Amino acid sequence: MGSEATGKKFIYLNLWELKDERTVIHIGFSQLFSGCYIFTRFLFILSVAISILATPAIKLGLEEVFLGFIIKIAGSIALVVAVGQFLKVKSDQLFYSILKFHRIDIFLQDKVLVVDDFDRVSVDTQKETYKLFNILHNRLPIIFVGDINKIAMNGDNYLQKIIDKRIDLPYVLHSRDIWAN
């Protein structure tokens, strides 16, 4: 993340660099709300650890250290996480619902999403990214960096619904020619 004199935070979404199995909506959520995402992951891991260590089989005496309701809450969270893992529930629907919720707009107003080298990602990833763009359209500025002629679904003007302003870089800055000089 970088910041500019305007007070905006630039969130860089480098989809072509990523090597994990997460979906684009999952990655976008984790980038846009990194503090909330990290806290939630930590809470889930801590809850699972507390619920395992508080079992009678381990007998560490955590019942005396933690209040009873903390162990029950941690156990409940761990149970929800375990059931979700067992049923292979996709977290996309949760992230999609949170991103559609307009009360989070206050957290988006100081951010700019920069999608770098969008033309370099696979066609499937580009199509998956359009879901994220549709949710975030008109809620925060999105900057695409890439060759528009290499972007999927460009032929049917799908991007025109998302792109408000198009700026072409000078030819000398084109990625093919940047190393020629």
What does this 3D model show about the protein?
It is a single chain. A 4-stranded mixed sheet has the order 1-2-3-4, covered by helices on one side. The model has no long low-confidence stretch (mean pLDDT 80). It is 44% helix and 8% strand. The two termini are 30 Å apart. The longest helix has 20 residues, at 34-53. Helix 1 crosses helix 2 and helix 2 (34-53) crosses helix 4. It contains 7 helices and 4 strands; from the N terminus they run E-E-H-H-H-H-H-H-E-H-E. The protein has one domain (2-173). With 181 residues, the protein is of the alpha/beta class. The protein has helices spanning 24-32, 34-53, 62-65, 68-86, 92-100, 105-108, 123-136; strands at 2-3, 9-13, 111-115, 142-144.
Q: TL;DR of this structure?
A:
It is built from 7 helices and 4 strands; from the N terminus they run E-E-H-H-H-H-H-H-E-H-E. With 181 residues, the protein is α/β, with parallel strands linked by helices. It has one domain (2-173).
Task: Indicate the topology.
Elements: E1 2-3, E2 9-13, H1 24-32, H2 34-53, H3 62-65, H4 68-86, H5 92-100, H6 105-108, E3 111-115, H7 123-136, E4 142-144
Parallel strand pairs: 2-3, 3-4
Antiparallel strand pairs: 1-2
Helix pairs in contact: 1-2, 2-4
